Amino acid sequence: MAGRTEHVSRILELTRRAFGQRLEQEPGLTLFDAEIPPLQSAAPKYPDLESFHLAIRECHKCPLGKTRTKFVFGVGNPRADIVFVGEAPGRDEDLQGEPFVGRAGQLLDKILAAIKFSREDIYIANILKCRPPGNRDPLPEEAELCLPYLLQQIGMIQPKFICCLGRIAAQILLDTKTPLGKLRGKFIDYHGMKLIVTYHPAALLRFPSYKADTWEDMKMLRREYDRMKGRPPVV
Ligand code: URA
Ligand code: URA
């Protein structure tokens, strides 16, 4: 298995490949990609998300391909301005083939409704497309093999915002060990997109006291979205 340093540079390389084009268009990005040199990105291989889904749904790059019930590609608006990123499918998602359909997903729907979004407005996907047995954390090699799929989805959707749900999604996408408490509450420049991090809905079910901070994060997101659209704030 690759060591940590090798793993980290692989993730950076994958991100560069996915977003190299955009980095060239928008130099001077700060924070997490400050040291990523501009590189040419590969031309998109698929005309739309559905054909991309069809091309990868039988994936067996990692052993989770053997244990999954359904491959959980992602759902929502292919032109969404906001992509929500979770960790990995759980039991309900594995059975239904859709992200965030269990208890955490029902809470996510309430959170979205509170900031006046429905699932049709946004796009939702996970770092891993297949359920880790017993809902254990993704292994570094699983994340490394699966992340290019998510990066390609984001590259095709071209959202203005990314909202990472929970520590794991944020740390993998940003390739950092920074704790969630230090990542949330602000916009992070991610290859020209505005990325925010907030608590995972499953964490809110266990620790309801995190809900106040989550509400602040969601209001911040909605207000910046409305500002970007040139509309009066709805929350
Ligand atoms: N938790 C996640 O991170 N993703 C899902 O799709 C469901 C639960
Ligand atoms: N701790 C985590 O690991 N994730 C959360 O979303 C909240 C607390």
Descriptive notes:
Mean pLDDT is 87; it is low at 21-41. The chain has a single domain (2-229), classed as Uracil-DNA glycosylase-like domain (Uracil-DNA Glycosylase, subunit E, 3-Layer(aba) Sandwich). The protein has a 6-stranded mixed sheet with strand order 1-3-2-4-6-5, with helices on both faces. It has helices at residues 4-25, 49-56, 64-67, 91-96, 103-114, 140-157, 167-174, 180-183, 201-206, 211-229; strands spanning 75-76, 82-86, 123-126, 161-165, 188-190, 193-198. A hairpin with a 2-residue loop joins strand 5 (188-190) and strand 6 (193-198). With 235 residues, it is an alpha/beta fold. The structure holds uracil (2 copies). One uracil binds at residues 166-167, 180, 199-200, 203.
Concise description?
This protein has about 240 residues and is an alpha/beta fold.
- Give the topology string: H per helix, E per strand: HHHEEHHEHEHHEEHH
| Heterogens | uracil
| CATH level-1 class | Alpha Beta
- Output the structural class: alpha/beta
**CA gyration radius, whole angstroms:** 17 Å
Chart the SSEs and their pairings.
Elements: H1 4-25, H2 49-56, H3 64-67, E1 75-76, E2 82-86, H4 91-96, H5 103-114, E3 123-126, H6 140-157, E4 161-165, H7 167-174, H8 180-183, E5 188-190, E6 193-198, H9 201-206, H10 211-229
Parallel strand pairs: 2-3, 2-4, 4-6
Antiparallel strand pairs: 1-3, 5-6
Helix pairs in contact: 1-6
The structure holds uracil (2 copies).
